[in-house]
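Technical note accompanying the year-one report. For the benefit of new consortium partners, we illustrate the data format agreed upon in the data management plan: each record pairs a sequence with a structure-token string. No post-processing was applied to the example shown here.
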Amino acid sequence: MITNALDDKPLPIYGDGKQQRDWLHVEDNCRGVLAVLEKGRVGECYNIGGLDVVENLTIARRLLQLTGKTESLLSYVKDRPGHDRRYALTCDKMEKHLGWKPQISLEDGLRRTIEWYKKHSIWMAAVRGGDYLSYYDKYYVNRDSSLHELAPGGAKSSK
């Protein structure tokens, strides 16, 4: 979504965009994983959540504002069948047992992430070209035929 916005490409929004997600900055996620590794008990499950449950459309609009782009880039597409309306976690156990909770606000996290993408535009361009495009084409554009080739009895690769 960020690279699309920066490149003035459409931001696809499934259905009405009202699906809610629990947003967490990558640094908080890494700190959460580290807390589990260092302090967690073997065999226990821990939810690492962001405590910021926000609709996808709201996030897309905020990304557009932060990148200085207009909402004309929003592109509503047919929703996926069975698309969950809400993903959210309770991470009370992380705080109670491991002393972990998110430290980066959603707003600050969005700003920091956008800045990272801007600073690493050359790296992003390389990542989004060549092998990435081949992978994207194989597993998204031509997904059905690619999966058929992988299935037992499917068409065999010429390798």
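Partners are asked to follow this layout when depositing records. The longest helix spans residues 26-39.
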